[in-house]
Design brief:
Helices cover 51% and strands 9% of the residues. The protein has helices at residues 2-39, 41-44, 95-111, 138-156, 161-174, 190-205, and strands at residues 48-51, 54-58, 135-137, 176-178, 186-189. It is elongated.
């Protein structure tokens, strides 16, 4: 009799565990996904960047924009490879970390001549935690803006430098956000800004430029 009660108790516990796993592991995530899809389908799909029906990436994942008429993403430990994420686990006193940071600092200064080293935020010369963070400090976007405006003016050759400087200023301002409510710092999503620039270029040179 006692043995039967023990078996019955174990079966009830097992059934409860299976039910709990089903609810927590399947039902709740499915319901949440359906709710998010209804509320904001674009965000639920990863905020895809689509130009003329072609998918080019996601606003959540940084990419390499190496031309001078684009704003630069943060350095990536994964080389912007979306199949994995992470960083080298260096301590701040590690020689590799020091050399790596110095390299990115010199690279940023060479791309943006005239900038004072004290103006350069630490975040733009170091890896993000994921390696594909799409956000850069708003102050960095302002530092890069003259260089990007000058390069875009040369490429397009249809308006004045002041026109492109003003256009880019508006893009940077429109994409300005705070990364944490009230106490956060100002950031810009470099993917949003750069693909907006790409669309400006595409209007003149066609989709072949993107390819």
């Amino acid at each position: 009799m006692v043995k039967n009660q023990q078996v019955e108790t174990f079966l009830r516990i097992g059934a409860f565990v299976v039910l709990l796993l089903l609810v927590v592991g399947f039902v709740m995530p499915s319901v949440e996904s359906l709710i998010v899809l209804e509320i904001d389908k674009n965000a639920a799909d990863g905020n895809p960047v689509i130009i003329n029906g072609t998918l080019y990436g996601s606003e959540y994942l940084a990419e390499a924009f190496n031309q001078s008429f684009f704003f630069q993403s943060r350095p990536s430990a994964t080389d912007y490879n979306f199949s994995y994420s992470g960083v080298n686990n260096y301590t701040v006193d590690n020689a590799n970390f020091t050399n790596q940071t110095e390299m990115y600092l010199q690279e940023f200064m060479s791309q943006n001549p005239g900038v004072n080293v004290t103006q350069i935020p630490y975040t733009i010369i170091t890896f993000s935690g994921s390696g594909v963070d799409p956000d850069i400090p708003y102050s960095v976007a302002l530092i890069e803006l003259p260089r990007v405006a000058a390069a875009l003016f040369t490429l397009m050759n249809d308006h004045t430098y002041e026109y492109y400087n003003s256009t880019l200023q508006n893009l940077v301002t429109q994409n300005e956000a705070q990364n944490f409510f009230y106490f956060g710092s100002l950031i810009d999503n470099v993917i949003q800004v750069d693909f907006s620039i790409l669309q400006i270029i595409e209007q003149k040179y066609g989709s072949s430029f993107i390819a």
